[in-house]
Structures are given as structure tokens and as C-alpha cells.
Automatic annotation (TrEMBL):
InterPro entries: AraC-bd (IPR003313), Homeodomain-like_sf (IPR009057), HTH-like (IPR037923), HTH_AraC (IPR018060), HTH_AraC-typ_CS (IPR018062), Tscrpt_reg_AraC-type_HTH (IPR020449). It comes from the Bacteria. It holds the Pfam family HTH_18. SMART domains: HTH_ARAC. Residues 170-268 form the HTH araC/xylS-type domain. One of its GO terms (molecular function) is DNA-binding transcription factor activity. This is AraC family transcriptional regulator. PROSITE patterns: HTH_ARAC_FAMILY_1, HTH_ARAC_FAMILY_2. Keywords: DNA-binding, Transcription, Transcription regulation. Coiled coil: none annotated.
Length: 268
């Protein structure tokens, strides 16, 4: 895989959000890239090609014209299509505000956004990154404003698509979101919308491309990551907060999902 990378000088003052580099990746059909608990937020625009991605337990097949989001501390694996490999423009975003913005705009669990042409904004990002006449602070200011615009465009696009999600599917998701500290059974969800278990799973999967169980499991791990990163709660207390009564079982599930133990994640 070949990459054209533009490295930017550090801003003149410490920033909670900054962009140290941007680049274009020309994927080879034989390349597989895997990251565990990756320490950077990355947003990409697929210029051409297609392939398979697994991001935080979710599987996608993004292609030309799609946007991909890899939030801070994500686990992911990417493989380009054998006959039509990707060309991907990417923006590397550092600082704690990257994930906070995703949460504020309600897109922290949106990883692949289909058919959202942001090539114009990405071109402006690359033009700014290449402009040697700008000071580091001015360059970072412009780049972070473009990042805000990208986030807003994604949020608007996602909300528009979500308006097409059925009321039943939205009710199921909201119930899971509000009860991350509980272990919700499929029978409880079925009773919520007066459907059979098989119908309930089908309705949820059609709307969100995964089963209710998979969504709830990934939500628990993502919530646990936030507790580990932002609080001093003990591992046992965090396990309880996300619906695990046994600390060791929680640690095993966390490691299976992320590749590291909760203690290792917090240390990183």
C-alpha cells in the first residue's frame, strides 16, 4: 500500500483538538490493516474502490462516495477488494475533543456513512495542509473548522436517514441505550413492541445492520471504555455499571472485544 502523507507542524499552543497529518492511501489488493485500541481518531473519504471493514465489532462494505469514521481507541480491520481496491483520503485527528464532538452530535456509533460526497471539504483540507504560507496555529484553526463542518454534515445526513427508521426499531434502540447497566433479554424487547422474538431481531437488524444482542454488547464495551478513560472507578465498579456482576467475566469479554484487558486499556 502506498500513501501520500502531508505532515503538519505542531500548533504554537497546546490544543484539545488538532490535526497533525492528512494523506491519501492507495490500497493494494493483498493488504490487510488491523489496529487494536488505536490512539487516534480518523475520518476518511473513499475516492474509489471497495472492500470490507470491521470496526468495533461491526462489519461494513464501504465503497466509492462513502465516509468512514474510526473513533479514538477503536478496534478495526480493513481489507480492500481484490478487483477494485480502495483509494482513501484520510484526516488524522488528535485530542480529547474528537470523540466528545462525535458524542455531542450523536454519531459516536456511526462508522460508515454511505453516499455522502464530502470530496470538496476534503480537497479544502488538503489544500490548507499544503499551504506553506500559513502559520502552524492558522493552519490548525482552519483544519479544525473543516473537521467541525465534516462532523455537522455527517450528523445532518445521519439524522435524515434515521427519519426513515421505523418507530419500532427506534424504540428498541432507545430502550437498549437507556439500560446499558442491564442485561436485556430478547423477550423483554419483544414485549416492548408486541412482536415475536424473531420479528424483533429482524426489525432491529434491518434498521441497524446488527442484532440487538450485538448492539447491546458493543455498547457496554464502548461505555466501559469511557469509564476507564474518564473516571477513577475500579474495574469491578465499571463492570457493574455496564451490567456485569462478575469482574473476571467482564474482563474476559472486554479483552475478546478489544484485544487488551481493562487495566491495559486504562494504562494506554
Amino acid at each position: 500500500m502506498r500513501e501520500d502523507i502531508i505532515n503538519l507542524p505542531p500548533a504554537e499552543t497546546e490544543q484539545p483538538l488538532y490535526i497533525p497529518m492528512v494523506g491519501t492511501a492507495y490500497w493494494d489488493k493483498n493488504v490487510v490493516v488491523t489496529r487494536k485500541c488505536f490512539w487516534s481518531c480518523c475520518i476518511e473519504y473513499i475516492v474509489q474502490g471497495r472492500g470490507k471493514m470491521e470496526i468495533n465489532g461491526h462489519t461494513f462494505y464501504p465503497s466509492k462516495g462513502d465516509i468512514c469514521i474510526f473513533p479514538l481507541f477503536s478496534d478495526y480491520s480493513c481489507r480492500a477488494d481484490q478487483n477494485d481496491p480502495w483509494v482513501r483520503m484520510w484526516i488524522d485527528v488528535r485530542g480529547v475533543l474528537s470523540n466528545e464532538l462525535l458524542k455531542l452530535y450523536g454519531i459516536e456509533n456511526e462508522y460508515v456513512i454511505q453516499n455522502l460526497n464530502l470530496s470538496g471539504i476534503f480537497k479544502r483540507v488538503f489544500d490548507t495542509a499544503s499551504n506553506k504560507d500559513l502559520s502552524p496555529s492558522e493552519s490548525n484553526l482552519r483544519l479544525t473548522l473543516y473537521f467541525y463542518e465534516i462532523i455537522q454534515r455527517i450528523a445532518i445526513h445521519v439524522r435524515k436517514n434515521q427519519s426513515e427508521v421505523s418507530d419500532e426499531a427506534r424504540a428498541l434502540k432507545n430502550h437498549i441505550d437507556r439500560n446499558v447497566n442491564c442485561n436485556i433479554s430478547i423477550h423483554e424487547l419483544s414485549a416492548l413492541i408486541y412482536r415475536s422474538p424473531s420479528q424483533t431481531i429482524r426489525i432491529f437488524k434491518k434498521a441497524f445492520q446488527c442484532t440487538p444482542y450485538d448492539y447491546a454488547s458493543n455498547l457496554k464495551i464502548e461505555t466501559a471504555k469511557l469509564y476507564l478513560k474518564n473516571t477513577s472507578l475500579k474495574i469491578k465498579e465499571i463492570a457493574y455499571q455496564v451490567g456485569f456482576s462478575d469482574e473476571h467475566y467482564f474482563s474476559n469479554v472486554f479483552r475478546a472485544k478489544t484485544g487488551v484487558s481493562p487495566k491495559e486499556f486504562r494504562h494506554r
